[in-house]
Fold:
Amino acid sequence: MLAVDAKKVVKKYSNGVIALDGLDLEVKRGEIFSLLGPNGAGKSSLINILTTFYKPTSGRVSILGRDLCAEPGFVRSHIACVAQNVSIDNHLSLIENMIFQSRLYKVDTQTASQRIKSLIESFELEQYMKYPVASYSGGIKRRLDIAMNMVSHPDILFLDEPTVGMDVESRKSMWNMLFKIKKEYGTTILLTTHYIEEADQLSDTVCIMKKGRVLVQGTAEELRKFTRQNLIRVIFSKPDEAKKYAAEFEKMNFVNFCDRNRNTVTITTNDAGRDFKSINRHLLTGNAEFDSLEIVNPSLEDIFMSHMNCGKDMKGKSIC
Amino acid sequence: MLNILWRNMKWRYQNPLTVIFTILQPLIWLLLYSTVAGQALNGMGYGNYMAFVLPGIMILVTFSACGSGGFINFIMKSNGSFYRILIAPLSRYSIVFGQILESVILSMIEASILFLIGIFFSVTVASGFAGILLMIPLIFLTAFSMSGLSYALSLLLPNMMIYETIMNAVVLPVFFLSSALFPVDNLSGVLKTVILLNPFTHVINMLRELIFNQDVNLTGVFGVILLLSLLGTVCFFFAVHRLKMLTVQ
Structure:
């Protein structure tokens, strides 16, 4: 059974903005699933729908095999969500926040007490218990927010940009925490992020979204395979030379996409092995000044950028 | 429901200024206005003017306390805890009930304080202990209605400034277009009709009867209780409806 199964989900706001445009999504149980995309891709709208906060305009969403619109009560009792804004109450103490959350999810007092104790240890929050919550740093508040949302032992934990605004150290600590949640509690984690490195490091499955649609979905390794051998990188001696040849490459009929960054030109084709020779021939014929020409194993960032600039969704529909 | 009530009461306990400011204006009305107006109206047959205005001021303090409940909701909406409650497996009725009950309790406490101050300034309740007991459901149901309306408006309106403007536009006319400060028997025409259509005129009149009359008009009291129950039910379901509109049902 899938943790999340969304079919043809559309979300159209009253101002006419279409945040989700026939989105299909499948999340397996027990995995860490990352939604990657730029601002306006529809990530937060999707999270708000999956957590029963927004109603989808059309389409069907199942959570743990149950229809979200027909059984929101069941869905709510099996999920928790760490929202973009930290949702702890500053007027309650650390313990009171956790007790409040446990009562919201009707966890009995004894079980709640054991879980709270265990979560405080797991998330290393003991040292902060004596201080008022309002005095906590953003990172500690976020840690408490996640610990609090784990009190009900949700089957699915949604996190909307959990590491936004965090320094590198806090972000790494957050990643460890998410791995711990997956390992110790078997929780399915669905998170949204802007950070490609985060999606790469954390996820079992990465889903790249743009304009309310899924562009591509798979494991980070699968996504690399998806374009493996299809990227050719040329490093020119001068930026002017790179600019000139980038314009020429774009006119070649086998080039899908050409990206230039200072001296470096990255070309996406359908068959890098075959097209490497044509590129090489073109450079040599033109006496181009270049330092290297290579077929590269794309990073997740390359995949993300190639899809962001011009991509097709999973149904083959072009989104540019 | 009790969980949300507990959380809101904790907030109120840590923000005592909100209690002070909600009772301050009614207290000034009670102490200063009744003294000044009482002297001006001396000899016109009102007797103890503080006793005359006390019911209206008790209703005014419930408006003030219940209005502040809407402000709490705006504060909760601005941080993430509102979202956390909405996606929790709770009945929407429990959420609304928990939210508005805090304002109702505050209203009861503040109305009691004003009542005790009135007693201190020689206001007596002619109907005795039974009359005091009958005042409790009248104040409770008034607060329940106003609190439900305030909560619904805080869900309906986009921000706190507009909410404050609307609440002022509702509360002050409702207060002045009632029998809170003067008897309406000698009035006539449209003004009297408007005042009689105001449900709080009847609540104030009934509280006043309990203060001035020895005999309790039970039919009148239960009529007003019925009126307030209807009003409270409408406001409560309006608030639940607004909350349900925000999320999947």
